[in-house]
Automatic annotation (TrEMBL):
Protein name: Methenyltetrahydrofolate cyclohydrolase
Superkingdom field: Eukaryota
Similarity remark: Belongs to the tetrahydrofolate dehydrogenase/cyclohydrolase family.
GO biological process: photorespiration; tetrahydrofolate interconversion
Keyword Oxidoreductase: yes
Keyword Oxidoreductase listed: yes
Function: Catalyzes the oxidation of 5,10-methylenetetrahydrofolate to 5,10-methenyltetrahydrofolate and then the hydrolysis of 5,10-methenyltetrahydrofolate to 10-formyltetrahydrofolate.
Tetrahydrofolate dehydrogenase/cyclohydrolase NAD(P)-binding domain residues: 215-362
Database matches in InterPro entries: Aminoacid_DH-like_N_sf, NAD(P)-bd_dom_sf, THF_DH/CycHdrlase, THF_DH/CycHdrlase_cat_dom, THF_DH/CycHdrlase_CS, THF_DH/CycHdrlase_NAD-bd_dom
Length: 366
């Protein structure tokens, strides 16, 4: 089977994960399969707040979160990621147009998809659509499952050298016969829009250093905090989860913003006691409704990254998506909380577009 190269496509990478419940041939399991891959992303010299230099449509501007929950009926503000992501896409579309008119350059994102996983294909499709919506060119390479590592790296090299490509994503997971590190390391750091290159992560961790790209999901979490005027400096933050793609970079980002950060993971004893002290919680675990209202400090701000399908007989699909945090309970205690879906999810793709735009700007000195 020969690889097909399709231009004017788009996309992203994905991380596989195990989700609860495994059965066969049900809509629920289809959802589980789909969600095994989660958003990719990233690019850009790290200067927070990344997108705040772009203007926000004032009529849709999210209002600041009030962190005072003393007295009165408890009802958290909903942090509307869908709405913020739309604002960001509009801002990016305007910038893309400006760049095209000024210097004739259109940002381009290339995605390499290996194998036939439906979830990965869906992700790639969504990213292509997102690129189209803001005027970013997308390029897609689809390779068969039995491709060799060298074949994948050959396409990466071509995109590394292609001046019309400003961001490269290798959709994860790769087939098991490939060494993911070898493949990802082949992506030129200046086009590493997922931000997973060790140099980018290393710079993120170091004082006085700036990564070219920050992983998109954690970047989206911080952007939500900024857009809702949540003060981070001097606050106690807890990140639940320490994965390379979400938890760990989220903790680094919060620290760069002068929060005092604790990380909770699967070996942490009494996680609720740690979470209880947090002004800001970012949860990226993959366990439905694990964080209860009783874990939260009154007035805390909760960013729920988790996307977990749970069976729901009332839904025509047989399942619904929930976060790591019990939303109904959190709403009664927190001052602000992201919903699932409609919270962090849409921000991930918006950050990918943002990173691609930033990459093009940097490469063309615009
Ligand atoms: P992951 O790689 O599986 O990492 C999960 C992390 O949670 C690990 O660090 C693990 O600890 C920790 N953990 C597991 N069980 C725990 C427990 N009972 N208590 C405390 N910590 C626990 O997952 P991920 O890729 O970071 O994704 C996490 C969730 O975010 C998933 O639901 C995923 O679907 C979602 N996600 C959403 C987006 C988006 O765009 N919205 C993007 C990416 C991921 P150890 O390190 O000790 O194993």
């Amino acid at each position: 089977m020969s690889p097909s190269l399709v231009f004017t496509d788009s996309s992203t990478s994905t991380a596989s994960r195990l989700l609860p419940f495994s059965r066969t041939a049900t809509p629920f399991n289809a959802a589980v399969s789909l969600l095994r891959s989660v958003g990719p992303l990233n690019v850009r010299p790290f200067v927070l707040p990344p997108l705040r230099t772009l203007s926000v449509n004032s009529s849709n501007n999210p209002s600041p979160v009030i962190n005072d929950k003393s007295g009165g009926e408890a009802c958290a503000k909903v942090i509307d990621g869908k709405m913020v992501a739309k604002q960001i896409r509009d801002e990016i579309a305007a910038e893309v147009l400006k760049m095209k008119e000024a210097i004739g350059v259109v940002p381009g994102l290339a995605v390499i998809l290996v194998g036939d996983r439906k979830d990965s294909a869906t992700y790639v499709r969504n990213k292509k659509k997102a690129c189209e919506s803001v005027g970013i060119n997308s390029f897609e390479v689809r390779l068969p499952e039995d491709s060799t590592e060298q074949e994948v790296i050959k396409f990466i090299s071509e995109f590394n050298n292609d001046p019309s490509v400003h961001g490269i994503l290798v959709q994860l997971p790769l087939p098991s016969h490939m060494d993911e590190q070898n493949v990802l390391n082949a992506v030129d750091i200046v086009k590493d829009v997922d931000g997973f290159h060790p140099l980018n992560i290393g710079r993120l961790a170091m004082r006085g250093r700036d990564p070219l790209f920050v992983p998109c999901t954690p970047k989206g979490c911080i952007e939500l905090l900024h857009r809702y005027a949540v003060e981070i400096k001097g606050k106690r933050a807890v990140v639940i989860g320490r994965s390379n793609i979400v938890g760990m970079p989220a903790a680094l980002l919060l620290q760069r913003e002068d929060a005092t950060v604790s990380i909770v993971h699967s070996r942490t004893k009494n996680p609720e006691e740690i979470v209880k002290h947090a002004d800001i919680i970012i949860s990226a675990v993959g366990q439905p409704n694990m964080v209860r209202g009783s874990w939260l400090k009154p007035g805390a701000v909760v960013i729920d990254v988790g996307i977990n399908p749970v069976e729901d007989a009332k839904s025509p699909r047989g399942y619904k998506l929930v976060g790591d945090v019990c939303y109904e309970e959190a709403c009664k205690v927190a001052s602000a909380v992201t919903p699932v879906p409609g919270g962090v999810g849409p921000m991930t793709i918006a950050m990918l577009l943002s990173n691609t735009l930033s990459s093009a700007k940097r490469i063309h000195n615009f």
